[in-house]
Amino acid sequence: MRPYRAMDSERPIITLTTDFGMADGTVGAMIGVIKSICPAAEVINVASDVPAHDIVRGAWALYQAAPFFPARAIHVAVVDPGIGTDRRGLLVTTRHGAFVGPDNGVLSWVLRQTDGIVFRVLENPAFRLAALGFTFDGRDLFAPAAAYLASGVDPAEFGPVIDDPVVLPWPEPRRIDGAIEGEVLVVDQFGNLITNIPFDLAATEFGDAALQVAVAGWPAGGIVRGYAGIEGSVGVVINGAGLLEIAANGRSATAVTGLARGARVTVTAGGSVR
After folding, report:
1. Residues 29 and 113 in one domain
2. What is the pLDDT of residues 9-62, one digit of tens each?
3. Same domain for 72 and 181?
4. Which residue range is the domain that position 231 belongs to?
5. Are residues 126 and 233 in the same domain?
6. What is the pTM of this model?
7. Going by DSSP bridges, is the β-strand pair 13-18/42-47 parallel, antiparallel, or unpaired?
8. Which residues contact 71 (CB under 8 A, 6 or more apart)?
9. Taking a C-beta distance cutoff of 8 angstroms, is the pair 213, 223 a contact?
10. b/e per residue, 119-140, with b = 16+ CB within 10 A?
11. Count of structural domains, the chain
């Protein structure tokens, strides 16, 4: 097997997505490990402020960012409330980058956007640090794995292929009685309610008709082109991922509505686009 090469340039890219914050030096420790093993690596901190233990928000951050990196980048995601349990560590190679992290679903959403996926368990002790304790796999397992991969180690050296990774559910919208029903997939840091309904799906379903959106009984109305165009309590925009998003003008939509992840969203024909 041809060794996985992080990039075709001299500087492989490794990204970090964690819930570690920046105050305790943990992200710095991961960067130090990576640079010690692969000095040429360019390390980019995608997000270190994922809410603590929130695997969904970690998966969302990776889903948002990873597709815009070069196709041979290596992405490390560590949101790991299961640290110290028997959960596995994963190396996932794909046609658009490699991914390293715990087997708890945090990697699964971004993998919806690529193919050529191979899952491996990180089992080879040659590619990890001797642990000083048992609570920092970001430093001791995942950072070294990414760095060795960036240095040209063949993925097959890290561990065996598996076919049963943990997958974080991505609820699919449904067509019911002339409507599309979905739900709030995630609430972002601004309090926007991001749904699982792609605008393209709704537009295809209803043709040239404008769309009317309601979230758990709140009439959000038709789609506007930006947050400043929202005139009522909440409104609907098409976000950067192409999904319908319930938002408030200058405020938190979740604070205005009291709604959160999982709230039901309904799209029907009608309304207007402003």
Report:
1. yes
2. 569 999 999 999 999 999 999 999 999 999 999 999 999 999 999 999 999 999
3. no
4. 174-269
5. no
6. 0.92
7. parallel
8. 95, 96, 97
9. yes
10. bbbbebeebbbeeeeeebbbbb
11. 2
